[in-house]
Structure formats: structure tokens, C-alpha cells
Amino acid sequence: MKKALITGITGQDGALLAAFLLEKSYEVHGIVRRASLPNTARIAALLGHPSLHLHYADVIDAAAMITLIQTIQPQEIYNLAAQSDVLLSFTMPAYTLDTNASGTLTLLEATRILPKNSCRFYQASTSEIFGNHEAPQTEQTPFQPVSPYGISKLCAYWLVVNYRQAHGLFAANGILFNHESPLRGERFVSRKITRAVAAFAHGGTTPLKLGNLDARRDWGHSQDYIRGMWGILQHSTPDDYILATGTMHSVRTFAELAFGHIGCKLQWQGSGLQEKGLDAKTGQVMIEVDPAFFRPVELHSLCGDASKARKILGWEPTINFEGLVADMVKNDIENYKSAAYV
What we know:
Elements: E1 3-7, H1 12-23, E2 27-32, E3 52-56, H2 62-72, E4 76-79, H3 86-89, H4 93-112, E5 120-126, H5 148-167, E6 170-176, E7 179-180, H6 189-201, E8 208-210, E9 216-217, E10 220-221, H7 222-234, E11 241-243, E12 249-250, H8 251-260, E13 266-269, E14 276-279, E15 285-289, H9 307-313, H10 321-334
Parallel strand pairs: 1-2, 1-4, 2-3, 4-5, 5-6, 6-11, 7-10, 8-15
Antiparallel strand pairs: 9-12, 13-14, 14-15
């Protein structure tokens, strides 16, 4: 039975990956940060599984992580732990760098001192490392991050490349473009939108506040991307891969599609900070623009070319944009009073 260690197991990707690996008969070890309130809601259905083992630790605690990894002796490590809120990274840059960059360094060192060739390392990279370079982005697109989050992830990316080249580690980066699911945290714009739709469906009247409506992203479903992460570590040689759908939609389009699931056709009025999205039938204000949600440096368009992953790994996304939005809206409407992920 293979052993896998997942940092960030309580997050969206960590929870989905844990379930995926357990189905493949892995022994799964997950890192959980100690908190005063339970933070295992996403993996609640997995708790009690005989092959799931949780450990309290933090990737920025080098001694604890090295000791734990030496004890577990995993064959695969998936580093999904991160401070992943881009807007928050502007106000907490040091913490973001510590967690995302120094934390990755700690895990790479811990992997390096394991018996040679005994463990494969996956690093969750991000399309944010590309910044505002013209889309579509490929593995050869120059990096130019425009946020502390993107900078921290770029540092982690190069650490993985360096440890692969200098120490011969099987270490790979998955450069994942936006990927969502019903387990997405509420601070992310996709889940903010679908939760707001659910609130209106349950009689709510408070307008949804959004930032840049015209920001465009390549949105896929996390279930597809989890499969891609695993595939990257199953290949015979380590390398870095983009996982993306190759299609791009705006926040405005996401909102229009999501609200359409409750019979609301959005009609836009005004411009700039005064723009509003109204229910075309009733005139009720559904969306307002709030400058608090604009980034200090905007990232306008991200769209990935996953040709390399398609050719070498045989990876293909199976759930399109419309299917993703429908899944999230349906889940939030059905579980509105209970499902919340910060």
C-alpha cells in the first residue's frame, strides 16, 4: 500500500485529493493546523477511514515537519498548503512568503533526506505566477507575478526546479489555473457568487458585492485537476505541467450564468464603481461593485494551454464551465444553511 502525505488536506484540493487517493487504496496522511475551532468540515465524510491519518503540524515548523516525514516515510508528498488569498497577501506579505515559499523549502529538505528515490514531491503552483502576460499562457511563458501571493508561489516553483536539478529529486510543479468546486472557500469569487445565488433563492435580499467584473479567468472543476496532480507524480520522469481548460470567462459571465439558475437574468446599469446588476424582471439589485475587492495591482486575463499535459500525461478536463457553475449553484442551494468554507 502506497503512503501519501498531503499538506493542506483540510482545503478544497486536499479534501478531494484525499478521497481520490483513498479510493486508490493509498494510506493517506494529512497535515492539519491546530485551531481553536474544528477545521475538518471538508473531510468530515472521510474521518474514521482506517487508511486516513491526521497529524497536527505546520509547514513553517521545520523541525516538526522533518521529524514527521521521517516517521511516515511517504512515497508521495502533495504540498497543497498555502496562504492562497491573493487580496489578503497584499496585507499579509510576510506570512504569505513564509507559508508558501519557506514552507515549500522545508518540505523539499525533508524529502531530500529521505532514502534516495523513495519519495515523489508535487508542488501546487498557480497561474498567478504569469501575471499579465498575454493569454494563453504555456510552460514557456515568462513569469511576472503581480501580487505577494504570486511572488511567493514563484519562489516555491523555482525551489522545486532547483531541488530537482541539484539533488535529483522527483519534484514536479503543477501550474494549475483556477479550479473550483462546491468545497471552495467563501472568500473566493466563484463561491461568493454561488453562495449569493443560494441566498437569493432562499429569500435573501442583500446585494452581492464584487470587485473587477471584467477580470477573466480559465475556470475548471477541481475534480479534473486532482486527477491531473496524481498523474504528474505517476509519470516516469518529473517535470512541470500546466493544467487548464483553455477557455476564459469573466467574473461578469460567471455571475450571469449562476444567477440564471434561479431564473434571474441580470441587467447591468451604470459604469465603474456605480455599476449594478439588476434582476431584469423585478429591478431588484443583485450585484454591486465594491472597491474593497479590487486588487492593488489587477490581474486581467489568465488562460492556460495544457497541450503538454494532454500529450504526455493524457490528461483532459471532463467538466466544462457551464457544468462547474451548475454543480456549485446546485450544491449551495441544497446546503445553504450548513455548507460554508472560510
